[in-house]
Design goal:
Layout: E1 5-9, H1 17-29, E2 33-38, H2 44-52, H3 57-78, H4 82-104, H5 108-115, H6 117-132, E3 137-140, H7 159-174, E4 178-182, E5 185-187, E6 193-195, H8 201-211, E7 216-221, E8 226-227, E9 239-240, E10 242-244, H9 245-253, H10 264-270, E11 274-278, E12 286-290, E13 299-314, H11 324-334, E14 339-344, E15 348-354, H12 367-374, E16 378-392, H13 401-406, E17 416-419, E18 425-431, H14 435-447
Helix pairs in contact: 2-3, 2-5, 3-4, 3-6, 4-5, 4-6, 7-8, 8-10
Bound molecules: aspartic acid and magnesium ion.
Length: 448
């Protein structure tokens, strides 16, 4: 079989019948698209996340009605076959029952079971829409092949199992119908539904691309590509036509909302180009993310990640000691914490913990972790920090970068700087309230 293209559509692309029809137009235009990955209709996952937190009956019915309205608006326009209507009704009832259970006692497993329903509904409705347009489309339950660990809220897929199961259950099907499946969800060893972290549908598409050796992965969203920075923060931000995997991975890791941070890894491993465009405005073009680009610029983009926690650890034991850092990182690893940035001095170490991405919404600095770290050293925690990352090429080889960047940031308090580990980025921490002004100032001086 010739290589296929995988198309992934985000929540706004499947928010209503009109948007879904735009997706169908795009799919039908490109006969290499054989597999389609969908997010939940816009607004549904957020409502489900709210329900999973355990709401009072009144708020609960507000959220359930909200979900029902989004999905029923699509159903009413489609007037689907009775079986589809019944299936959506059954899922809505299940959401209602699970939400009630969550209000009594919530758990991470229950949360994932609840929030995975958004993707189940959007895919059912989209298959129906395609069938009404005489497309031979088939609904596929991704949980059959996307096996994960049981780290609910941010489950890690088993790529070996995905490869084997895809060959078995998915590949033969691609020869027949157009396959429509869910992003974001998977299943763990006991068959319970898991999720890959907010925005995880892109990751699903990339993982499937790798497993099926796709020729391209198209990520259709509501913006026509990747910009030099978030255009909502800096309206003069410019679209990047072509960008390398390494640059895009740095952008995604450091907070650019355009792609799920882990998305690119499977695509890079297999060298599959990823196209990012707007399903509502496909003619506006987009950004192609690929292995190499011609003449990569020194400064490529600015990313901003909010909600950072800065932890500073002080201990005189660090002075000329060995093994102190190992102990600190051992403790963090036992608490399942991923550290982002680190700087050290003779008697202290500063690091940041990322709080974004997980659906659990629980602060990473738990009392247990704080107590354990406090037995090793003095611990200071500062919340609401923002990480600004300048992404570029050969940054650590260039002269005068410090002056160019920090020279224009005079009025701001820079709390921590990381530079030199990667030639692709320079990043630093500023108080949350300064973040946007810092990004605007830098964009104006370095990009315009
Ligand atoms: N529906 C999920 C979310 O909103 C996954 C996704 O859209 O990629 O996070
Ligand atoms: Mg999304």
């Amino acid at each position: 079989m010739t290589q296929i293209t995988i198309a992934k559509f985000g929540g706004t692309s499947v928010a209503n019948t009109h948007s879904m029809n735009c997706c169908a137009d795009l799919i039908l235009k490109d006969s290499s698209v054989r597999l389609v990955v969908l997010s939940a209709s816009a607004g549904v996952t957020n409502a489900l996340v709210a329900l999973a937190s355990g709401l009072e009956p009144e708020e609960r019915s507000v959220q359930i009605d909200n979900i029902r309205q989004i999905q029923c608006a699509i159903m009413d326009e489609l007037s689907p076959q009775e079986v589809v209507r019944e299936e959506i009704e059954r899922i809505l009832e299940n959401i209602s029952a699970l939400s009630e259970a969550a209000s009594l006692a919530t758990s991470l497993a229950l949360t994932d079971e609840l929030i995975g329903n958004g993707e189940l509904m959007s895919t059912l409705l989209f298959v129906e829409l395609l069938r009404q347009r005489n497309v031979n489309a088939e609904w596929f339950d991704i949980r059959k092949v996307m096996r994960t660990n049981d780290c609910f809220g941010k489950a890690e897929p088993d790529t070996t199992a995905l490869f084997e199961l895809s060959q078995l259950h998915l590949l033969p099907r691609l020869k027949g119908a157009l396959i429509i499946t869910q992003g974001f969800i998977g299943s763990e060893g006991k068959g319970r539904t898991t999720t890959l972290g907010r925005g995880g549908s892109d990751y699903t598409a990339a993982l499937l691309g790798e497993a099926l050796n796709a020729k391209r992965i198209d990520i259709w969203t509501d913006v026509p590509g990747i910009y030099t920075t978030d255009p909502r923060v800096v309206p003069s931000a410019m679209r990047i036509d072509k960008i390398s995997f390494s640059e895009a991975a740095e952008m995604a890791t450091f907070g650019a909302k355009i792609l799920h941070p882990a998305t690119l890894l499977p695509a890079v491993r297999q060298d599959i180009p990823v196209f990012v465009g707007s399903s509502k405005n496909p003619d506006a073009g987009g950004t192609l993310v690929c292995q190499k680009t011609d003449n990569p610029p020194l400064f490529r983009a600015l990313a901003l990640r909010r909600g950072q926690t800065l932890v500073t650890l002080h201990s005189l034991n660090m002075l000329h000691a060995r093994g102190f850092l190992a102990e600190v990182f051992g403790t963090l690893a036992r608490h399942n914490i991923s550290v982002d940035l680190i700087t050290t001095s003779e008697v202290s170490v500063a690091l940041t913990l990322d709080t974004t991405g997980s659906t659990s919404g629980i602060s990473l600095m738990t009392t247990a972790l704080f107590t354990e770290l406090s037995s090793l050293c003095r611990v200071e925690v500062e919340e609401n920090m923002a990480l600004v990352a300048l992404i570029g090429n050969q940054l650590s080889q260039a002269c005068g970068i410090g002056k160019k960047v920090f020279g224009v940031l005079d009025p701001f308090n820079i709390r921590m700087i990381c530079y030199g580990a990667s030639s692709h980025n320079l990043c630093f921490l500023v108080p949350g309230e300064d973040a946007e002004t810092v990004v605007r100032t830098l964009h104006h001086n370095l990009f315009e």
